[in-house]
Input
Amino acid sequence: MNIKKDIAISDSGFVFDPTTGESFSLNPLGVKILTLLKDGDDQKEISDFVLQQYEVDSDTFENNYYDFLNMLKQFNLTEPQA
Amino acid sequence: MTNIMKKQKYERPIINRINAGVSNKFGTQTKINIISEIDGLAVKDLLKDYDSPLYVISEREIRETYNKAKQAFSTRYPKVQFAWSYKTNYLDAVCRLYHKLGSWAEVVSGFEYDKAIDNGVPGSNIIFNGPDKSEEDLTKAIKNGSLIHVDHFDELYLIMKLADKIEETPKLAIRVNMDTGIYPQWDRFGFNYENGEAWNALNRIMLNEKVDLVGLHTHIGTYIMTPNAYGVAAYKLAELAVRVDKKYGHKVKYIDMGGGFASKNTLKGAYLPGTDTCPSFDDYAEAITNALINSEIDPDNLPTLFLETGRALIDDAGYLLGTVLANKRLADGRRSTIIDIGINMLFTSFWYEHNIVPAQETTHHTEDTTIYGPLCMNIDVIRAAIQFPLLNKKDHVVISRIGAYNMTQWLQFITLRPNVVIIDMDKNVHIIRENETKKNFDQLEKVPEYLK
Ligand SMILES: Cc1ncc(COP(=O)(O)O)c(C=O)c1O
Output
């Protein structure tokens, strides 16, 4: 999944989408993952990173990860699929 | 040497849309409250020891609230007597605690009456209210010298008939309904004040030598937010007392103002939380005692003021503890959290926006959330829209202020009722009602031979 190139992500947890004018707030892990996605990391790379850094098992994270991707789609922060 | 890095605490990734300047139905929340312990005992330990879900009653909070209520009235009026309204919570341990604190019993059925007797309440300290008193119930109540609050003329005539046969003189009060300026007016119980029915009933009682008029009663409704309505009600009962005294030279021993004080719960659709809007015991006490003291009642013969306060005394002392079963995403992106507490255990969720909070530390991040119970029923909604922190499966939640009506109006529906415990003043935990088992229900059912 590709994240829109022109969204602005701030370290403090805010995201601005200039194409719609909408703003979003994220928690720290949300910011981290969105940044990794924007940089082109795939699911495996993101998952490895999170499992290494955080107290979480892979099933729980996978579940939460897909939920998060769905929300990004819901908020139109992803590029329409070709 | 290997560098073992300590992993960070995990919180799942979330994103929320910011709606600048627009407040939505999920409300805004800046600070996340948690309840991790009750009277010094950890919620997680209580759930480990007594299973989830779990009802918890705090003796400390029962005592503190009772003392506050008592103080509000007894500092303003010389003779005050509380009567515990059994229907609010009739677990025997709870009733006995109120009796220990000095409360009499207020009951509305033969079942509740027998419970009060079994709880050691002298018959003369039981107030018997309600429209459903059988001939057998009335006979028992007359013989025990209980205070019978007559609801309608059919009942009055039955009592007069019984009085012919029974040696003891029935002690009667009438329940009066009236316009106190609040809507809806509860006019289905008792005799109406404005149309003269109440006065008529009083005359009939006074003209019958076999019955004794001892009191006047009203219960103007429940969760009444306007203390002034009580002032109006107390004034009208005082007026009836004065008229009886003038015409018959007979003084009633008490005026019973019923229950109905609001607890600090928030009603559905209310703009502000109940903690901000609900009157204090002092507000109610001021309105009622002013009306009585300023009435024409002879100050040397003030009647005792009875109060049948239910929810305002016990709501705060009750907690419902539970566990997150799952998180789900609804079609429109809203999060839903499913917990093991259903509306079958939280009857009051039909009219309250119950306060529900996590039992463990969370971050300040929240999501628009709907909290569902575990029942396979669309109506099983604990909170339709709340800003809620990110809880995971197996995390614990606490619903506070549930002491009134839930442990009597609960339903055996789909799941079985869980344990109820009380935490005593020394922080000891006692089971006061065991969790139900399938066996309990099997005992009551019978399968006809042909279906075996
Ligand atoms: C006659 C009577 N007294 C007292 C109560 C207790 O009311 P509350 O819990 O509102 O104080 C009720 C409740 O309906 C009642 O019907």
In short: Residues B 85, 88, 106, 129, 219, 222, 258-261, 308-312, 404 surround pyridoxal-5'-phosphate (CB under 6 Å). The beta strands of chain A are 8-9, 14-17, 22-26. Chain A has one domain: 8-74. Residues 8-74 of chain A form one domain.
